[in-house]
Amino acid sequence: MIAFWLIIAAMLLGALACVVTPLLLTFAHERGQAHAALAGLMIALIPASALTLYMRIGDPAALAIQTAPPAVSGEHADAPASMEAAVSRLAARLRDSPDDAPGWAMLARSYVVLDRPGDAAEAYRRAVALNPRDAELLADYADALASANGGGLNDAALKVIGAALALDAQEPKALALAASAAFDRRDYASAIQFWERLSKVPDLAPQIAEQAQKNIDETRALAAKGSAASIVASNVAPKAASIEVRVHLSAALEKRVRPTDTLFVYALADDGSRMPLAVQRLSASQLPATVRLDDSMAMTPNRRLSDFSHISIDARVSASGQARPAAGDFTGSSGLVSSKDAGVIDVTISDVVR
Fold it and tell me: Which residues cross the membrane (predicted)?
C-alpha cells in the first residue's frame, strides 16, 4: 500500500512539473508584468496545494484559449495516459476503503491536475467529511468548488473558506482565496487586509510575501483611482458592460457533439491578447445556449469588457474537457463587434481544430 501511494505521489509531481508549470509561465507572460506576481504566487503554492489557486487566477477557459505549448516528447510523452491509469487505480482502491481521508485528498488533487473540477470537488468533499478540522484541506476544497463553478467563489466556497480560517487564521491558501473573493466584489479594503495577513504568515516563503505586498500596492492604487474617479464623475457611475451571446452548432456538427462535451464561451479584446475578458463554461448538452458575459467575470480589473470598444466572442466545444485546445475540438467566432451596443451576439460553432 505504501508503495502505491509513493507511485501516485511521484506521478502527480511529474505531471505538475511537465504539464502545469509551462502553462503557468505562459499565463504569466500573457497577462504582463502587473499580474506576473499573481501567477508567481500561484506557482509558489503548487507543491503544497496541487494548484489550489488555479481557478482564482484563471478559469480553465483562460488557459484553453492560449496557444498550446509544444508537445512534450521523450520520456514524458505518455504521462497523461499513465496519470489517468494511476488515478483510476486509486479511485478503485477508495471504493474498497472509503474511510481513507488521505486517499480521497490525493484523488482530489489528481483530478485537479487532470482538469476534472467536478470530480475534484466531490473527492475533496469526501476527504473533508472524514477530516473536517484540516484547514489546508478545507482551503483546497473551497478552490475545487470554485473550479467546478466556472471559477467563481460562490456561497458554498466562501463558507468553506470561512471554516478554514476559523480553524487556522493564518492558513495561507484560505487567506489568498478570501483576498481574491474580496477583490472580485471590489471590496478593496477587505482584500488588502487578507493580503496583509497572508504576507505576515510565519515561515512564509519570501517571494510569496513580496508578491502579496505587490497585490496590496496595486489594490491600494485601484482603490485610490476609484475614489478619484467617483469625485470627477459627480456620482455618475459608468455603465458596466454586459453582453448576451447565443451559441449554436452548425447542422454539420450537431451529430458529432456529445452531451458530455464541454462548452467554453469567452470574450477577447481587439488588442491581440489571448487572455479572455470574460468566460463562461457550460455543458454541450445546453446547446443551443444563451449566456451573458459581463465585467464581473474579468480576470483582472484593468481588462474588462467595458475597457474595450471592440471585442470578439469565441466558443469552443471540447470532447476531452481539457483546458488547452486540441485537434478535433469545434470552434466558432463572432468576429469583431462593438462592446457598447452589440445587442445579442450570435456565434455559430462550425469549424474543426486541426
Answer: 33-54
- Is domain 2-226 classified as CATH 1.25.40.10? yes
Domain 242-352 CATH (choose: 3.40.50, 2.60.40, 2.40.50, 2.20.200): 2.60.40
CA angle, 132 as apex, 130 and 133 as ends, to 5°? 130
**What is the model's pTM?**
0.49
Distance CA 153, CA 133 (A): 21
Residue 131: burial class (beta carbons within 10 Å; 0-12, 13-18, 19+): middle
CA separation, residue 294 to residues 193, 244, 309, 316 (Å): 27, 9, 14, 19
**Tens digit of each residue's pLDDT (9 = 90 or more) over 211-239:** 888 889 888 888 887 655 554 444 444 45
Lateral strand order in the sheet of 289-294: 289-294, 242-249, 344-349
Residue extents of the structural domains in the chain: 2-226, 242-352
Q: Is 256 exposed, middle or buried (0-12, 13-18, 19+ CB in 10 A)?
A: middle
Instruction: Give counts: helices (H), strands (E), the chain.
Output: 13, 8
CA distance 333 to 271: 16
